[in-house]
Amino acid sequence: MRFLKTLTFLMLATGLVFALSAWAQNTLRQSIPGIARDATGAVVSIVMSDKAGQPISQGSGFLISADGRVVTNYHVIKSGISAVIKLPNGAFFVVDGVFAFDKDHDVAIIKAHGNDFHTVRLGDSDRLQAGSHGQRFSDRGLFSCAIPNGNRR
């Protein structure tokens, strides 16, 4: 009889642990519409210009700090002399310079002139697992999801 009580208790405890785990994952994981809503205003267009001030390339990026740091692709900024970022509300800000870049990984951080920018909340890539969801935004308001396959460069 004691064995059955112990077995019943363990089954109930295990069920409770699985239920709490599922509840926590669903509660802690933000919904895709919530992520898109939070990123509104932080995804920008970037226009690079030559010495004459003529636009030569355009790309997108996202604000990661209230003081104007923007993550973009290196290939977007590599040929320009000057740049501006454009916010979704139509406001323009001059880019003060390049904060950092990595040609091999095609990533750059530029610094826009200004303060109090709305930023995206960055995740922890060390916690990303194969099969989990990632999100990507474009400067045209498009939103897509990605599922990493576990291959990292």
Provide a concise account of the structure shown.
By secondary structure, the chain is α+β, with helices and mostly antiparallel strands.
Please outline the helices and strands.
Elements: H1 2-28, H2 32-39, E1 43-49, E2 55-63, E3 69-72, H3 74-77, E4 82-86, E5 92-102, E6 107-112, E7 134-137, E8 143-146
Antiparallel strand pairs: 1-2, 1-4, 2-3, 3-6, 4-5, 5-6, 7-8
Content of β-strand:
25-35%
Termini separation comes to 57 Å
Look at the helices and sheets and give the structural class. Answer: alpha+beta
- What order do the helices and strands follow? HHEEEHEEEEE
Radius of gyration based on Cα positions: 22 Å
Specify the number of helices: 3
Q: What is the strand arrangement across the widest sheet?
A: 1-2-3-6-5-4
Q: Mean pLDDT score, rounded? A: 74
